[in-house]
Amino acid sequence: MIFIRFADLGSSPIEITGEIPFSAILKNLNSDEFAFEINQNFKIKASSIPNGAELRGEIFMNFRQLCGRCGELKDRIVTIPVHIVLRKKPPKKFREEDGRYEDDIGVCFVDGERVDLEPILIEQIILSISQVWSEEACGDLSSTLNS
Ligand SMILES: [Zn+2]
């Protein structure tokens, strides 16, 4: 778990670096098209904004993925940009109808003063890498499909 506290954040960003456990990524991906054998590093700057926090940074990915063309696991090194706004949910008695505090692209609603960044970063990873991919050395998959 990678915790930040809103109380620790100010208007000038603080840098947070760490590792996202590969086992947690695999569990959430739930796909045998990916192989993760090492933890993935990230570097993020977090700053306070009204009623929340803004996270900007990068996740440095190093994993293997099935090539859509040759069907073999191939090395991938990818940098995933992170830009997320965390919004604090109001106390329960002040909350309005269901659905108002559902996450949207780039926005996460969070409970409490302390936030675990790990599931939020894993979500970014999954959104960014779950797609058909083929390595350049194998040629462009889409042009193959169209010919
Ligand atoms: Zn290939």
Explain how this protein is built.
This protein has one domain (3-146). Helices cover 18% and strands 41% of the residues. The chain has helices at residues 22-29, 117-129, 141-146; strands at 3-5, 14-20, 34-35, 40-49, 52-66, 73-88, 107-110, 114-116. Helix 1 (22-29) crosses helix 2. Zinc ion binds at residues 67, 69-70, 72, 74, 134-135, 138.
In short:
This protein has 147 residues and is an alpha+beta fold. The protein contains 3 helices and 8 strands; from the N terminus they run E-E-H-E-E-E-E-E-E-H-H.
Q: What would the keywords be for this entry?
A:
binds zinc ion; 3 helices; two-stranded antiparallel sheet; elongated; alpha+beta; 147 residues
Quick one: overall form?
Answer: elongated
Taking the alpha carbons of the first and last residues, their distance comes to 47 Å
Helix proportion range: 10-25%
Helices and strands: which structural class? alpha+beta
User: What small molecules does this complex bind?
Assistant: zinc ion
Average the pLDDT over all residues and give the rounded result. Answer: 88
Number of helices: 3
Tally of DSSP β-strands: 8
Flag low-confidence runs. none
If you compute it from the alpha carbons, what radius of gyration comes out, rounded to the nearest whole angstrom?
18 Å
